[in-house]
Each structure stands twice: as structure tokens, then as C-alpha cells.
UniProtKB/TrEMBL annotation:
Catalytic activity reported: D-ribose + ATP = D-ribose 5-phosphate + ADP + H(+)
Pathway: Carbohydrate metabolism; D-ribose degradation; D-ribose 5-phosphate from beta-D-ribopyranose: step 2/2
Matches recorded under InterPro entries: PfkB_dom (IPR011611), Ribo/fructo_kinase (IPR002139), Ribokinase (IPR011877), Ribokinase-like (IPR029056)
Gene Ontology molecular-function annotations: ATP binding; metal ion binding; ribokinase activity
Domain Carbohydrate kinase PfkB residues, every copy: 7-278
Name of the protein in question: Ribokinase
EC number per UniProt: 2.7.1.15
Positions of K(+) binding: 231, 233, 267, 270, 272
Cellular localization per UniProt: Cytoplasm
Gene: rbsK
Amino acid sequence: MTIWNLGGINADFVYSVPHIPAPGETLDASSRDFFLGGKGANMSVAAARAGSHVCHIGAVGGDGRWAIDRLTEYGVDTRTISTVETETAHAMIFVAEDGENGIVVYPGANRAIPEKTLLQSLTNAKTGDWFFTQNEVNLQIEGAKFAKETGLNVAYAAAPFDADVTSQMLRYLDFLILNEVEAEQLKAATGQGPADLPVKDVIVTLGSKGATWFGARGETHVPSHKVTPVDTTGAGDTFTGYVIAGLDRGQPILQAMQTAAKAAAIMVTRHGTADVIPSLADVRAFSG
């Protein structure tokens, strides 16, 4: 089957700093790196490296050809990415010595995806394929509604969190993933906890504490693997991409989560974003 991912594509500028800057504080960075990023791109690369056929639906500016080339190199089908007049999105990522990060994003082309790009892409989808999206882009609700009406499975990562958009998305979803802060924000907006939502499968990620699945079996926890983190950027996206790939390949959700937990553990031991997401071979060799 195919995963159709309506997602963001960023140029990530990563700065190594002693700690995350406080308000009014100026810091010297010890290094600066440049990576392909964006939650959508990260998830597409993760799902592709996990063995799925992924068509990325998105947009870059005229300055973004390099991003399309890298996605192609990493196994993502890029024929559904448009080039628009707005510049490619970019992010400034500050990574502290303990591995924690702070991020500022300029959305750029991610919020200018043409509706015709979305609709033309999904007309090629087949019943049983997955449609997947996040909140970095425009057209999430339109995409989810169209996908649901045409027989696709619909998955959604509620980040960056937007209570209004997330509330509107719930009616179309088969799968929802969000972190524990976002779960609390959604409960505050809707009055519903993860177990109460009208979604078949809900996963709440808990960082170093693992992730919890709320589904037909009730509440099931999958622990994380103990590693020494150097950079947590992209770990959640890696986990999500691997889970979606597992579901796309027909794995039970618990098995998909266990594989994804290994991928996320490897990811936090590496500096970078999409460019360093582990392959399925890396995950199978992981013994942590």
C-alpha cells in the first residue's frame, strides 16, 4: 500500500549551545549544522526507511530543489511536491548539552500548498492506503475529509498543537498520535482524555518514558529504551513515521510501536533530523 503524507518540508539550521537560551539571553553556539527537516519530511523519511512506499504531498520555494533531491535520495516519492513562489520553510533549532532542544519555525511554503496538488495526489490513492498529516501545513482538514470519503485510512499527528484544527480533525481519524502536553491541551479544549476520543487508535508519546496506546485492548504502555541522548530533535517524528509504516505493512499496532521505540532510541544518539533517521536494518541490529 501507499502512505500519502501531507507534511512540512524545512531547512533546519541546528546550533549546539550550552543550554536553551532564556529570555533576553545571548549565547555563543559551539557549532552550526544544516539538515533537511520539518515534521512531515522527517516522518516521510522515517516511514520510507521503515519499508513503506511514501508519497510526500507538500511544497517548497524556488530555493528548495535540494530538499526534493534529498527526499528522493532517502526513498520518498516526491512527484507530489509543488514549487511555489513563497520561500521554503526553515527552522532554527537550539540543541543543549543535555540533548534537549528549542525550535523556532518560519512556515513559508508549508502553508502555501496548492489545493490542486492535494486533490490531484489523492485521486491516485487506492482504498486501504493511508493519508497522514500534521499541523505544519494548510489543507489538513480538507485532506482528511477527502481521504475519508474515498476509503483511505486517516492518521494525524497533532503537532504543532492547534486546539481548533485538532477538534475538527477528530471526526475523520482512524489514528491519532500526540505527546502528553498536547493530550492535556486537547482535553482542556474538548473535555475528552485519550481513552474518550472518537478515534479507533490513539497513541500518547511520553518522551523518555515511552508511549501509551489507547485502543480496543484498553490502555497499553510501550517503554522506551535506555540510551544516552545527544539530540532529541526528530525522535518523536521518527517514532511516528515508523508506527505508520508498520500499520501500512499490516503489523499489529503494538508490534509497530515496539519497532518505532527502537528507531527513536537510535535517533536520540545522533545529531540531526531527517538526514540521520535510522534505517530498518539499523533498527533490527539495535540491541538496547
